[in-house]
Design a protein that fits this description.
Layout: E1 5-7, E2 10-13, E3 18-23, E4 33-39, E5 46-52, E6 58-60, E7 68-73, E8 78-83, E9 92-99, E10 113-114, E11 118-123
């Protein structure tokens, strides 16, 4: 069953901003870590950012440090990815993911639950 629902993608010009949201209110188990991955056409799925659900400790890939922020709202059961200074190379399908263990990993195979993805397109 669907446990993660993303929203907020769209088309934006280079230098612009977007906020992605992931609704985790449908979860049936506790999550240790939430993360955002992205996959561009012809490329492998790659880690963008992760956050520990309880402590809110965050991890960002070097390619997005200083431009993206991950956060979570426990009361609302939401996870967010704030994206700024967007570049055309940020264009991809962005996925919300969750794993039950509380250690942030960058390997997509270690995540237990996935959303359907939301498209982000950055025009030059």
């Amino acid at each position: 069953q669907v446990q993660l629902v993303e929203s907020g993608g769209g088309l934006v010009q280079a230098g612009g901003s977007l906020r992605l949201s992931c609704d985790v209110s449908r979860r049936t188990v506790d999550y240790g870590v939430m993360a955002w991955f992205r996959q561009a056409p012809g490329k492998e799925r790659e880690f963008v950012a992760g956050i520990k659900w309880v402590s809110s400790t965050t991890y960002l890939d070097d390619s997005v440090k200083g431009r993206f922020t991950i956060s979570r709202d426990r009361a609302k059961n939401m996870v967010y990815l704030e994206m700024g200074s967007l570049k055309p190379e940020d264009t991809a399908l962005y996925y919300c993911a969750a794993r039950r263990l509380g250690i942030v990993t960058t390997a997509s195979r270690t995540y237990d639950y996935w959303g359907q993805g939301t498209q982000v397109t950055v025009s030059s």
